[in-house]
Design goal:
alpha/beta; nine-stranded mixed sheet; 19 helices; TIM Barrel
């Protein structure tokens, strides 16, 4: 007897093969049988006739590390479930909540404020105790954790913008290895952000060498996506090649119109690397805009010492003008990790007109959310730089922004389509949901957008290829052995959707519309979405650990 049978659907099993008609029988959170199950007993049946049945979608690039420990996370992360995401990969871009050194914990907290929702207790220090905290409280989705270079570096030296001493490097590596033993699936870096911005390639190379014995992946928000795009892409490939580990180029992109022609070149770099035997891949946000901290607009030297040091510099008229000159005049180049160098000047690449505020912490500035920096500047009688600097000061650095111009713009997304169509491209959201501010539309619609707009309407690829990019491909990249496919014995993470109507209904100005066409979502055999309604209280997810039997 089954716990649940999904009847009559067209199965898109995640392999990329065409759909087949079959029932899916589920027992004890696993797929127990696939075939004609009409005569078998089941405690519950759901009619999937006329719908597609697919594995649950895996968001290979999420930033919900600081949300999942909160009691309210099921409600805040409901838009992920609502679009069919059953598994999130956390710890990306060099940001993770662990390990924690009490001596530098305040710096870690300040560094990650834009990722936080409800206040969290300091209830863990090691990576393992963080995962144990999640286990004890339960999670609404499956969590695949990465440990972050940023957290490891802050643990040792805080925000000091200098090369590490040999003993500091050795302690970082031991901390990485301990985190891998405690369940981390790999190491991420955020080389555009402090403190990753201060780490020379040799530091990353030496640290990532610790991944090989654990057969774990290295993922990277590379150093730059504009002037330094080609060199930065070579760097992430080199980490994998030198250390013989899998690498993932996070949210591959070309930022700013003058750099879109480089897309062919970065794809070729990855293709040539694979021909040499390098296990390299990448993931793509299916939009032409990205969200990140507003602090990313500032030059590296201004961020040395952390957020408080930046705020002090912005209060000093002479230093403030020096920062302005850097943004207006300095050109990113290689090497970009030495003091004073730029990896990626976001303002130069995309222009002030394409930067808008998504979230600020204070109630006083809530009216600024959703407005571009030029609009804010006009309202304040100043220019965009001064407006941005003032907002950062008023918010103590706690502000998030949307940047348009990622591999395309609102008129031309040919570059984005080229990246997304590549057979090694996994789909991601990169969305930051905290329960505050205006989110990126990907938080509500990324996966339905790929299924509806890019697969069905544009014809960029088939629906079965779209599903592969969302399921088995990211599962293979991460080493998830029992998820990402509709297959007997695999976890019963399942999405039932209407291929004819599935769609993202958000816009950049109205980013919180629920998608169309997602009928049911199951997490480990539990129905968490039914006809679009999300059960925000159910804790059906699992905290997955590298090498564990349920991964």
């Amino acid at each position: 007897m089954f716990d649940l049978v999904l009847e009559g659907g067209r199965l898109v099993d995640g392999s990329g093969q065409p759909p087949t008609e079959a029932d899916v029988g589920i027992s004890n959170g696993r797929i127990a049988a696939i075939g004609d199950l009409g005569s078998t007993e089941s405690a519950k049946r759901l009619d999937a006739t006329g719908f597609m049945v697919a594995p649950g979608f895996i968001d290979i690039h999420s930033h919900s590390d600081f949300l999942v420990p909160a009691d309210e996370h099921g409600e805040i992360l409901a838009p992920f479930l609502g679009q069919g995401i059953t598994t999130i990969v956390t710890g990306n871009c060099g940001y993770s909540p662990a390990p924690v050194n009490p001596a530098t914990a305040d710096e870690l907290d300040s560094y990650t404020t834009f990722l936080r929702g409800p206040d969290l207790p300091r209830a863990w220090d090691s990576f393992g105790s963080y995962l144990g905290y999640l286990d004890a409280r339960g999670v609404a989705l499956n969590v695949v954790p990465l440990v972050a270079h940023g957290a490891l570096r802050i643990h040792e030296v805080g925000f000091q913008g200098r090369p590490l001493e040999p003993d500091e490097q050795a302690r970082m590596k031991r901390n990485l290895e301990q985190s891998l033993e405690e369940g981390a699936f790999g190491l991420s870096s955020g080389l555009l952000y402090a403190p990753g911005i201060f780490a020379p390639p040799e530091e990353i190379q030496a640290l990532a060498a610790g991944l090989k014995p654990y057969d774990s992946i290295y993922t990277s928000h590379i150093r730059g996506s504009s002037e330094t795009l080609l060199s930065a892409t070579k760097e992430v490939i080199r980490v994998g090649e030198m250390n013989e580990v899998a690498t993932q180029h996070s949210h591959i992109e070309a930022f700013g119109e003058s750099h879109w022609p480089k897309i062919d070149a970065i794809i070729e770099l990855h293709e040539r690397a694979r021909e040499r035997g390098v296990d390299t891949g990448f993931d793509v946000i299916p939009y032409v805009a990205a969200n990140t901290t507003l602090l990313a607009i500032f030059p590296p030297w201004a961020l040395a010492g952390g957020v408080d040091a930046l705020l002090a510099r912005l209060r000093d008229p002479e230093q403030r003008q020096r920062i302005r000159r850097s943004i207006d005049e300095d050109i990113p180049g290689w090497p970009c990790w030495i003091p004073g160098a730029w990896p990626h000047n976001l303002c130069e690449a995309t222009g002030w007109d394409n930067i808008s505020l998504l979230w600020v912490e204070s109630e006083a500035n809530k009216g600024l959310e959703g407005r571009t920096l030029p609009e804010i500047a006009e309202g304040r009688g100043t220019d965009p730089f001064e407006a941005a600097a003032d907002v950062v000061l008023e918010e103590n650095g706690h502000a998030m922004a949307l940047f348009v111009g990622v591999s395309g713009d609102l008129e031309d997304d040919a570059g984005l389509r080229k990246l997304l169509a590549h057979p090694w491209a996994s789909v991601e959201t990169d969305a930051i949901l905290t329960g505050r501010g205006v989110p990126h539309p990907a938080a509500y619609g990324a996966f339905p957008r790929v299924l509806g707009h890019f697969a069905r309407d544009v014809g960029l690829f088939s629906v079965e290829e779209a599903v592969r990019k969302m399921t088995s491909l990211p599962a293979e990249r991460l080493g998830l052995r029992g998820r990402g496919r509709l297959k007997q014995g695999f976890a019963a993470d399942v999405v039932v959707f209407d291929a004819a109507s599935v769609a993202d209904r958000t816009t950049y100005r109205e980013p919180t519309a629920a998608p169309a066409g997602i009928e049911y979502v199951l997490v480990n055999g539990n129905v968490v979405v039914q006809r679009g309604a999300v059960d925000t209280q159910l804790r059906a997810g699992s905290v997955l650990r590298r090498g564990s039997s349920d991964a």
